[in-house]
Amino acid sequence: MSYGENLWLFFTLLFGIIILPGMDMIFVLANSLTRGRAAGLAATAGMMLGGLVHSAYGALGVGLLAKLLPVLFTPLMLVGALYMAWIGLTLIRSAIVVDDVGRADTKSNWEAFRRGAITCLINPKAYMFMLAVYPQFLKPEFGPLAPQAAVMAAMTAATQLFVYGAIAVAAGRARNMLVGNRAGTAWIGRCCGGILLLVAALALWEALHR
């Protein structure tokens, strides 16, 4: 797999995860509906900051492992691939439902930004997911890890801005698309699960042939 193909696969997985309805998306939508577009965009900026922190620790973990304990790099890829496969199967078998958005209790755009970052950072599943994903795409054979990590972090922030920013700008339509739309949200979850299974299968194949 070339570096360009690797980035396209990462983007496909990244877009699927970010577009999946969850606490981050609901927080942005709640602020947009309660306090307007500017509050939703402030919450989006907070989510982007949280995503950059997740990207930094994921890259740092992979870099330290590749440098200090390279013998564990392949086992980590295997474990990460199995974890992604488990998440994918869970998403395919379950139905994501958004029953209500509720009101945001933020009182300023700065608070929306700050709490958006905190909301992103306190999600424990995000830490586990980043540790599973980054070893699959951040690879020493593509050169120095720092430039690779910077590109992936920029892709993460840009995708968050595109998805969450669109929700902030079109909050009313976004609510109609998500709340009570069981078929739509379930379809998004199953598509994301399928992408995770595909990436997990490719990662397993590569790890076993290293």
Unreliable spans are none
Question: How would you state the average pLDDT, rounded?
Answer: 83
Report the β-strand fraction as a percent range: under 5%
Largest sheet: none
* N-C termini distance: 13 Å
Q: Please give the number of β-strands.
A: 0
Query: Number of helical segments?
Result: 9
Helix amount:
over 70%
- What's the alpha carbon Rg, rounded to whole Å? 18 Å
Overall number of domains? 1
Task: Tell me which oligomeric state these chains represent.
Answer: single chain
Characterization of the model:
The chain has 210 residues and is mainly α. It has one domain. 81% of the residues lie in helices and 0% in strands. Helix 1 runs parallel beside helix 7, helix 2 packs antiparallel against helix 3 and helix 4 crosses helix 6. The longest helix has 32 residues. It is globular, with a radius of gyration of 18 Å.
Task: Give the topology.
Elements (H helix, E strand, L loop, with lengths): L2 H17 L3 H13 L1 H32 L4 H21 L15 H13 L2 H14 L7 H25 L1 H8 L3 H27 L2
Helix pairs in contact: 1-7, 1-9, 2-3, 2-5, 2-7, 2-8, 3-5, 3-6, 3-7, 4-6, 4-9
Please supply descriptive tags for the structure shown above.
210 residues; mainly alpha; 9 helices; 81% helix; globular
Short overview:
This protein is mostly helical. The protein has helices at about 5-20, 25-35, 35-70, 75-95, 110-120, 125-135, 145-170, 170-180, 180-210. The chain contains nine helices and no strands.
